[in-house]
Amino acid sequence: xxxxxxxxxxxxxxxxxxxxxxxxxxxxxxxxxxxxxxxxxxxxxxxxxxxxxxxxxxxxxxxxxxxxxxxxxxxxxxxxxxxxxxxxxxxxxxxxxxxxxxxxxxxxxxxxxxxxxxxxxxxxxxxxxxxxxxxxxxxxxxxxxxxxxxxxxxxxxxxxxxxxxxxxxxxxxxxxxxxxxxxxxxxxxxxxxxxxxxxxxxxxxxxxxxxxxxxxxxxxxxxxxxxxxxxxxxxxxxxxxxxxxxxxxxxxxxxxxxxxxxxxxxxxxxxxxxxxxxxxxxxxxxxxxxxxxxxx
Amino acid sequence: xxxxxxxxxxxxxxxxxxxxxxxxxxxxxxxxxxxxxxxxxxxxxxxxxxxxxxxxxxxxxxxxxxxxxxxxxxxxxxxxxxxxxxxxxxxxxxxxxxxxxxxxxxxxxxxxxxxxxxxxxxxxxxxxxxxxxxxxxxxxxxxxxxxxxxxxxxxxxxxxxxxxxxxxxxxxxxxxxxxxxxxxxxxxxxxxxxxxxxxxxxxxxxxxxxxxxxxxxxxxxxxxxxxxxxxxxxxxxxxxxxxxxxxxxxxxxxxxxxxxxxxxxxxxxxxxxxxxxxxxxxxxxxxxxxxxxxxxxxxxxxxxxxxxxxxxxxxxxxxxxxxxxxxxxxxxxxxxxxxxxxxxxxxxxxxxxxxxxxxxxxxxxxxxxxxxxxxxxxxxxxxxxxxxxxxxxxxxxxxxxxxxxxxxxxxxxxxxxxxxxxxxxxxx
Lengths: 296, 428
Known about the structure:
The complex is a heterodimer of chains A (296) and B (428).
Chain A: H1 3-7, E1 39-40, E2 47-58, E3 61-72, E4 76-80, H2 87-93, E5 104-112, E6 115-116, H3 124-130, E7 131-134, H4 145-156, H5 162-175, H6 179-182, H7 195-208, E8 213-217, H8 225-238, E9 243-247, H9 251-257, E10 260-265, E11 268-274, H10 275-280, H11 285-291
Helix pairs in contact in A: 4-5, 4-7, 5-7, 7-8
Chain B: H1 2-52, E1 57-66, H2 69-72, H3 80-85, H4 88-99, H5 106-113, H6 119-130, E2 138-144, H7 147-153, H8 170-181, E3 185-189, H9 192-195, H10 208-239, H11 244-256, H12 261-275, H13 283-308, H14 311-319, H15 324-352, H16 356-360, H17 381-389, H18 394-427
Helix pairs in contact in B: 1-18, 4-6, 10-13, 10-15, 10-17, 12-13, 13-15, 14-15, 15-18, 17-18
């Protein structure tokens, strides 16, 4: 409440149209970020994925505005921001998950290893095999634990024999640090596991197809602190092999797991920088207000 | 401030009584409505069951028959062919006369012959055909009682009713009483009700032909309506673009579900019988017509079931790189299957109970033979009920109710199956 006065910074002069997705936040009466340019370092040298001028529309509504951001190879980048700021929408545009929403339109370019994934000749099936995803709510298939992990490799034809498939399943479950808990109950339904185990199963399912990038959309929001800690440890181990982009509501989590942090606000990418810098010396007032807990 | 609070408390308390009274009243209306429903249902079931139960028993009369070769007009070493042509009818008549020698006049004799069903002579012939050594022997043989005699034996007709108002005359009642005293009558479970086709004689009429006809018709209906309905639902729900055309299709499907079923019968008559010249009265045409009728139900329920599948499962599948088709067939359909099956079975149950469209395509004919295939003439259970309900004989009244009981039994069975399938699939 008291923060609303402070946000009224000169560059955020209020003049009208604000995306209504952030309704409920007190700040909008005073802030308009529509002509705002990202501060910090959105671009890196060893980019695995690069987004350039990405705009996402839900029907008439513009949910993401001109976001340009690089995701470096083998780094963990955290995306934070208040509810409705478009961070999940941006994440979903990185593997074209937004395509399944009929009214959703994406404008701009996203490159994976220099290739535009929104080019006409790009295949979403191949893209999603290369850019895996873990969702907010654990969503294992209502099948056995084994089938959950084996499904991806099977449809992509990654295993040529049952033994090979068994190996992939074991390796993936081990990497998701779930193997020891489930190795004797692989034929039990995945939906019977605890929430944290289910989420690790979903991570195992994602890494079973050996993606290059893993997108995580608030993977811990439905989990208790202990399960969250395990997932965070897991993210730390996984960054050796994978590039990870994680959307999170928890700033502590962002600080713990990521190397770079991007702050989104009302569909705009406000600030990007090394995690340490963003959390200790935010360059932008909005970022500062958010991480100090004045709103969000 | 505090004063206001006390005032509010008093106001709320005063209104509480009224509010709770309203709630109690509403609950009572609800209970009354449920009770009324149950009473109607109970009356209906009681009426049907009490009328139909006697049809499940069968009355037999034991007649001493002298299977005399001379009376039959065959030799003692008669061939099968000869026996099947022999006159068993007059043999039974003469046996009856021997049992009641005091019956002299022609009218009385005719009444005497009416104790036994006309079916008895064929039963006797079959018995002799099966065992030719019976030729020349004198034996007590159980014969099916005539439906009127049976209704007296079952106690449905009593002497209380004035003789002029009943078909069973006093004289016949005396004979039947005498037979009963001699232990020559018996009541047993009516197996022929389930093994015979329709007949002009109530005691010989069975539901086998109608059951078989219903089975064939439903098979055709299921084979057509289920795959077409499910695929249409999958396409409309998962693949079709949302535009005017698909909106129009959706509206039409919903409207089709509300079209009176007899209209489908007219369509079947005009298109399948008159234009495509498919056989009349056949389960094939009946099945096609009923599948048209069932399709909207299956499409609508299947779409609802597919829609109800959590989007997170779709996202999960697409997220690991499954194609749209793989997502639908590996994940969405298995989860939606219980709902789809429930809808389909309810649609099939509707089709099983349907008679109006089948009347239009000629399945209302009197058919005695059990159909052997989908192109044979046949009838179905509800139409059989309609036919019997039209017959004035007491024997058919009870058959009508009995057939309704069988039909309801099948409907309950199908609904139970729907529930079991749903439960079983949901567990996985």
